[in-house]
């Protein structure tokens, strides 16, 4: 008796062939995702032999997108998005506009109508968040300030693309759609736009106000049962359930819904565990995503339209990157940040496929356009790891060969250097605070009142600017970089106080600080009990709970370790006398 297990055969072929080609790619020092893309081509209808079910692969890819975006949300809070809003929002809008313009001009030169050219340009303007995440994770810079800018930039692009997807059908008749009868509507355009924006805004509002309270509470209740299976099930139910509900009720994309569900769940103290529990599934389904992309590729486009494809790749890899590079430098960010963002945008992905498919169904994009978009996506995704690998060499080459680049790089980030006018006596035996938030604000205030010198290391330029304006010593940069710690004079410091979530990065900072100053003592602030136990077991440093209530205890501990117990006692007596008055 014959049986047809399409889902099982698709998974078996997808995972098996992806494993083989991914392994071969790694052996040749090529990123594994290139092997996954080739595996998709192998099982696609365009090549002989076994053909996987492309519809099932597409749905499995959507699950991968949901889980990946959920994972990003767990590491990317609303405050992170707000910190980069001044560059992410105008940068994304301007970059999408200019990239769309380039695509429109090229397609119109080919003889396409303005409507077709516009949709084609839009398809080339939106980069893939999934591809970016894999690249940033591989490079280890997802948590860095450059990584936050790139992710924030693409989140803004995703929101804009969602609006475009909803607005395109009612606008189709105005753009000369061939399938006019399928999109005719008596509803005024302004009402459609208002309704669309309203639904997206309502979803975001509900997630940030209601979800911010409900989801952490739900995770806490499930965690109290002690069942690992229930905890994992809760994480998956929230990620996929909210993504699907957001799509059905609010017409928000799966990716955006999953991102916001992860972002509000970040408020739970079990967020780190949720990220770890969902990691294996995220990795597995991200492989299926790349296999699914490969399955949509038609190799004949390389033979039929080679010049057209070269023009598309020039827009995606060169045009978008140059536009992004110029915009970031215009905002006076460092050369390295500009090159990182440029590399991040040198590809297109899932939203481009969705937009192109909608364009074809509306008669606003010829089938040739769909093939070019898919080919451009495949090649640009495969090239993207190379683009990231070129960031450092390009930076060094530009600074070596181009005098203006040296001047610009030196001037663009003065916040990463300690000002020369700072007196050296205040940069010896001091505290180094890594990461600035409400708790560190209390610590900085208490240290200032006790006249204990300290330097703050923070990745957010806006925060560093505010701190310096208020008279604090602060350095902008990633504390993993020895050069940044040297600017904070960690080599002469007495203690380093770390207050951020990532345990791996925390250990790297402590390791770097102790290489520069083997006598330095570390104070670790965390709300995760497991991390606290590991830190104490490994003798990384003194551990405190990361809440505002503990700020006073941390300062008292520091005063004690500095041998200033008498000064602390005198300060407390003066404070009590002041309160009595």
TrEMBL record:
Organism of this sequence: Turicimonas muris
Membrane spanning stretches: 6-25, 32-51, 63-81, 93-112, 118-137, 149-172, 192-210, 230-246, 284-303, 309-331, 338-364, 370-391
Residue ranges of every copy of the Cation/H+ exchanger transmembrane domain listed in the record: 17-386
Domain of life assignment: Bacteria
GO cellular component: membrane
Gene3D superfamilies: 1.20.1530.20, NAD(P)-binding Rossmann-like Domain
GO molecular function: antiporter activity
Keywords noted in UniProt: Membrane, Transmembrane, Transmembrane helix, Transport
Location(s) in or outside the cell: Membrane
GO biological process per UniProt: potassium ion transport; proton transmembrane transport
Residue stretches making up the RCK N-terminal domain: 432-530
InterPro entries listed in its UniProt record: Cation/H_exchanger_TM (IPR006153), Na+/solute_symporter_sf (IPR038770), NAD(P)-bd_dom_sf (IPR036291), RCK_N (IPR003148)
Topology with respect to the bilayer: Multi-pass membrane protein
Full protein name: Sodium:proton antiporter
One Pfam family, short name: TrkA_N
Family: Belongs to the monovalent cation:proton antiporter 2 (CPA2) transporter (TC 2.A.37) family.
First-listed, main subcellular location of the protein, grouped into a coarse class: membrane
């Amino acid at each position: 008796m014959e049986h047809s297990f399409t889902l099982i055969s698709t998974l078996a072929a997808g995972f098996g062939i992806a494993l083989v080609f991914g392994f071969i790619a790694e052996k040749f020092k090529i990123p594994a995702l290139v092997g996954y893309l080739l595996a998709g081509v192998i099982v696609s209808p365009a090549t002989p032999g076994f053909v996987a079910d492309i519809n099932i692969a597409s749905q499995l890819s959507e699950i991968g997108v949901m889980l990946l975006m959920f994972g990003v949300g767990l590491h990317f809070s609303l405050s992170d998005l707000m910190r980069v809003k001044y560059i992410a929002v105008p940068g994304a809008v301007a970059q999408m506009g200019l990239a769309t313009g380039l695509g429109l001009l090229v397609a119109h030169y080919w003889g396409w109508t303005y409507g077709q050219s516009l949709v084609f340009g839009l398809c080339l303007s939106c980069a893939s968040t999934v591809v970016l995440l894999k690249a940033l994770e591989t490079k280890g810079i997802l948590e860095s300030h450059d990584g936050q800018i790139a992710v924030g930039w693409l989140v803004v692009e995703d929101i804009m693309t969602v609006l475009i997807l909803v607005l395109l059908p009612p606008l189709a008749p105005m753009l000369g759609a061939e399938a006019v009868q399928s999109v005719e509507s008596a509803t005024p355009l302004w009402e459609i736009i208002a309704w669309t924006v309203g639904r997206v805004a309502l979803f975001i509002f509900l997630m940030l106000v209601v979800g911010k309270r409900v989801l952490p509470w739900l995770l806490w209740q499930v965690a109290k049962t002690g069942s690992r299976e229930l905890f994992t099930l809760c994480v998956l139910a929230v990620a996929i359930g909210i993504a699907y509900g957001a799509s059905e009720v609010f017409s928000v994309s799966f990716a955006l819904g999953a991102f916001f569900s992860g972002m509000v769940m970040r408020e739970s103290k079990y967020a780190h565990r949720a990220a770890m529990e969902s990691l294996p599934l995220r990795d597995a389904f991200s492989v299926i995503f790349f296999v699914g992309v490969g399955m949509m590729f038609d190799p004949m486009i390389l033979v039929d339209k080679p010049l057209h494809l070269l023009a598309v790749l020039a827009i995606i890899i060169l045009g978008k990157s140059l536009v992004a590079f110029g915009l970031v430098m215009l905002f006076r960010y460092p050369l390295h940040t500009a090159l990182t963002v440029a590399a991040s945008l040198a590809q297109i992905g899932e939203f481009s496929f969705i937009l192109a498919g909608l364009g074809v169904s509306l008669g606003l994009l010829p089938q040739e356009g769909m093939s070019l978009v898919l080919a451009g996506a495949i090649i640009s995704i495969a090239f993207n790891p190379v683009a990231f690998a070129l960031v450092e060499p390009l930076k060094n080459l530009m600074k070596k060969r181009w005098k203006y680049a040296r001047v610009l790089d030196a001037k663009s980030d003065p916040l990463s250097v300690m000002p020369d006018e700072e007196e050296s006596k205040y940069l010896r035996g001091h505290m180094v605070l890594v990461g600035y938030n409400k708790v560190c604000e209390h610590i900085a205030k208490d240290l200032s009142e006790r006249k204990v010198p300290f330097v703050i290391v923070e990745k957010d330029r806006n925060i560093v600017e505010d701190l310096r304006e208020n008279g604090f010593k602060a350095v902008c940069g990633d504390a993993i970089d020895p050069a940044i710690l040297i600017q904070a004079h960690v080599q002469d410091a007495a203690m380093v106080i770390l207050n951020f979530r990532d345990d791996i990065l925390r250990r790297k900072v402590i390791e770097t600080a102790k290489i520069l100053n083997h006598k330095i003592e570390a104070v670790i602030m965390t709300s995760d009990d497991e991390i606290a136990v590991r830190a104490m077991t490994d003798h990384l440093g003194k551990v405190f709970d990361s809440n505002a209530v503990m700020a006073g205890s941390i300062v008292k501990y520091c005063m004690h370790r500095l041998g200033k117990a008498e000064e602390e006692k005198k300060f407390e007596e003066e404070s009590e006398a002041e309160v009595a008055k």
